[in-house]
């Protein structure tokens, strides 16, 4: 276990990107993109308790992503196996056609994967992490390993920035601003706060967090939500993400490091130790 660096390892772009605490801002961006796919959001609304337990669902998602990125190979594969088993038991009804469909259809899994990894890398870039075009392409190629965990054929998943752009262009005619998508937007703006924090400055801070996530959306997605799709919004969101990342860099690093990350760093240090001694 101590020599297993998982699916990616310290030389990967994935480890470098996901070490950035600013990635938490990617959550509302990814969710709002996912909600524009009618079947994706129908699957969530008909099978999920996110409206009643948003923070628990967020924590489970964070734990899964951390395990896939920083866990051992066995841990990542076990997490993926659990996700596949959960999804295999779920179906939903298409609200437009009345057709029942499987949650684990490749079409839906691919949409969720692409919007998630695109949100991660876009947030990191706009917050100022130095990434070359080759780094971005390598990240998307590496993330095909994460796609395989949930049951996708890695070769069916976009593996570069250009592939991502082509994928969005092909999918946009299938996207809709459904009532459920608008419900997700309203919910993200003002979800129930945990620990009695609803009438505190934490609520105001969360409004800023949500607004930043919306600002990081592609212009076409903001327009679909009937929100400003102007270049000035892009500039403002990029500046805010950059500033927030700089502020976070002044805080103690351990404040953002979970046990899965720390375990990965310990394994990486142990694996590098013999080379250092020689």
Distance between the termini: 23 Å
Strand order of the largest sheet: 1-2
Taking all Cα atoms into account, the compactness measure Rg is 19 Å
Tell me the total number of β-strands. 2
Spatial shape: globular
Number of domains: 1
The major beta sheet can be summarized as:
2 strands, antiparallel
Strand content: under 5%
User: What's the tally of helices?
Assistant: 14
Mean pLDDT: 90
Instruction: Give the helix level as a range of percent.
Output: 55-70%
Q: What is the succession of H and E elements?
A: HHHHHEEHHHHHHHHH
Structure description:
The protein has 278 residues and is mainly alpha-helical. It has one domain (13-255). Helix content is 63%, strand content 2%. The protein has 14 helices and 2 strands; from the N terminus they run H-H-H-H-H-E-E-H-H-H-H-H-H-H-H-H. A two-stranded antiparallel ribbon has the order 1-2. Helix 2 (26-34) packs antiparallel against helix 6 and helix 4 packs across helix 5 (73-88). The radius of gyration is 19 Å and the shape is globular. The mean pLDDT is 90.
Quick recap:
By secondary structure, the chain is mainly alpha-helical. The protein has helices at 13-18, 26-34, 38-47, 54-70, 73-88, 106-126, 133-142, 144-149, 161-171, 179-189, 201-215, 219-224, 231-249, 259-277, and strands at 91-93, 100-102. 33% of the residues are buried.
Question: What brief labels describe this structure?
Answer:
278 residues
């Amino acid at each position: 276990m101590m020599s297993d660096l998982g699916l990616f390892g310290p030389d990967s772009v994935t480890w470098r990107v996901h070490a950035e605490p600013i990635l938490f801002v990617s959550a509302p961006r990814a969710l709002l993109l996912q909600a524009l796919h009618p079947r994706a959001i129908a699957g969530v609304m008909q099978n999920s308790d996110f409206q009643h337990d948003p923070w628990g669902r967020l924590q489970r998602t964070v734990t899964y992503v951390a395990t896939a990125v920083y866990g051992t190979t066995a841990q990542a594969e076990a997490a993926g196996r659990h996700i596949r088993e959960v999804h295999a038991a779920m179906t939903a009804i298409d609200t437009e056609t009345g057709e029942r469909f499987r949650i684990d259809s490749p079409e839906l899994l691919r949409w969720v994967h692409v919007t998630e990894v695109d949100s991660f890398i876009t947030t990191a870039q706009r917050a100022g992490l130095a990434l070359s075009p080759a780094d971005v392409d390598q990240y998307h190629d590496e993330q095909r390993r994460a796609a395989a965990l949930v049951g996708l054929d890695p070769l069916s998943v976009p593996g570069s920035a250009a592939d991502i752009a082509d994928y969005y262009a092909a999918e946009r005619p299938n996207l809709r601003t459904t009532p459920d998508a608008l419900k997700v937007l309203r919910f993200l703006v003002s979800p129930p706060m945990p620990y009695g924090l609803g009438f505190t400055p934490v609520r105001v801070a969360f409004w800023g967090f949500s607004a930043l996530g919306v600002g990081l959306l592609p212009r076409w997605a903001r327009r679909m939500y009937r929100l400003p799709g102007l270049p000035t919004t892009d500039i403002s969101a990029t500046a805010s993400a950059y500033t927030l990342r700089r502020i976070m860099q002044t805080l103690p690093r351990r404040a953002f490091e979970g046990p899965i990350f720390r375990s990965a760093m310990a394994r990486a240090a142990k694996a590098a130790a013999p080379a250092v001694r020689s």
